[in-house]
Amino acid sequence: xxxxxxxxxxxxxxxxxxxxxxxxxxxxxxxxxxxxxxxxxxxxxxxxxxxxxxxxxxxxxxxxxxxxxxxxxxxxxxxxxxxxxxxxxxxxxxxxxxxxxxxxxxxxxxxxxxxxxxxxxxxxxxxxxxxxxxxxxxxxxxxxxxxxxxxxxxxxxxxxxxxxxxxxxxxxxxxxxxxxxxxxxxxxxxxxxxxxxxxxxxxxxxxxxxxxxxxxxxxxxxxxxxxxxxxxxxxxxxxxxxxxxxxxxxxxxxxxxxxxxxxxxxxxxxxxxxxxxx
Length: 278
Hints:
Elements: H1 6-39, H2 42-57, H3 60-68, H4 70-75, H5 81-123, H6 126-135, H7 149-152, H8 164-189, H9 194-198, H10 202-229, H11 235-276
C-alpha cells in the first residue's frame, strides 16, 4: 500500500479505525448542543455532551500507544521516517472519514439525543435512561433519518452567525488532530530527544485549547443561549452545527498538510529543552 512495509499496515489500520471512531463521536458531539436548543434543555444537553466526548476519548487508551510505537520501530530500522509520515497522514485520512460519517449520522443523532434528553429528565439519571433505551432498542429505526440536501440548504446562510470564530475553529481542529502525531513524527526524526518529543504534545494541543476556550467557544455559546432565549431563531443553532462540522473537516485536512511543519516545531522545542537542561 503506497510503498509501505507490510509490518506497518496492521498498526496503521488498527489506529486508523480507532481514530475514525473517535472522530465520528467528536463530530456528533456538536449535535448534542443543537438537540439541547431544540428541546430547550441546554444544561442537560451539556451533561450528555460531556458523556459523549468522554466516551470517545477512551479510544486514546488503545490508539495512542500504537502510533507511539512508530518511533521505536524507526530506531530499530523497521520503518523509515518517510514511511512514518505517510502512515500518520493515512491515519489522518481516517479522521477525515470519521468527520464525514459523523456529518451523515447527524440528523439521526440529533433525533436520538432529543429523545434521550426527555428520558433522562424523566428518569432522573443516566443509567436508568440507558436501561430504558436498551429495553426499547427495537424502536431505534423510528428515530433514524437519512441526510438530505434539501434539509441542509436552508441552514447554509453564513450571514446568520459570526464568521470569525469559525475560521479559528479550523485551526483548533488542526492542532487537536495532529497534536500527538506531531510528537510521534518528531520522535521519529531524532531519537536523541525521542522521549522529550513524545511528551510535548501539549505545546501543540495547548494552542488549540487556548483558541477553543478563548475565541471559539464563547461566540458559539452566545448563539446557543440566544436561540434558547428566543432572541435568535432555533435554525441558527442548526446553522452553527453545520458550519462547525464543515470547519472541522477543513481543519483535519489542514492537519494533513501541516503535520511535517508541526513535527519540526516540536523537535525544535525538544532540542531547546535538552540544551537548557544540559
